[in-house]
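Incident review: delayed structure delivery

Summary: a single-chain prediction request sat in the queue longer than the usual turnaround. Root cause was a stuck worker, restarted by the on-call engineer. No data loss occurred. The affected request and its eventual output are reproduced below so the record is complete for anyone auditing the incident later.

Affected input:
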Amino acid sequence: MRAEERSQILALTQAWTQKYQNTRWPSTHRARLKITSSSDWTFTRLRSGGTWLRPTNVAVSDQATYAGFAGELLKLTQTLENAEAGESVEMNEDILFVNLNEEGVLEFEIGCSHVGTTQVEILNSLSGQPVRVDTFWWGGINPGAENLLQVALPVEAISQRLP
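Output delivered after worker restart:
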């Protein structure tokens, strides 16, 4: 490699390093979603109020056939046979929330089939051990293409450290 090429590479490296160091990264807020369902399928979607990133699966029931993100949905499924028998499955997912309006609300949708119920617990994880801040339950039947419940959580419930 010629001296001129080395000099260009060093200059580019320095420019990119400086750009990285000067970047203002958004605040992140770690929370845990604990979803328990006796339905054959359920999902939770963040509709507005922020963005969720980097989901990390903490725990999943052995009977779950799927547990994780699928596009914008946090999904949990089990066999229809198990759901009709009243069996429940559970998942725990740690998620980073960003782009939050500190004075606003996070709006979620919970969807599930017409078999069974779903419970979504939201836990604040900023102080180390997760602390439950709210629980939402859905087991009704709404008309329309999707069977949804819309719920809201104040942003401060996950953005402030709890004792």
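Verification: The beta strands are 29-37, 41-48, 51-60, 66-70, 73-77, 89-98, 105-112, 118-124, 131-138, 148-154.
Action items: add queue-age alerting; document worker restart procedure.
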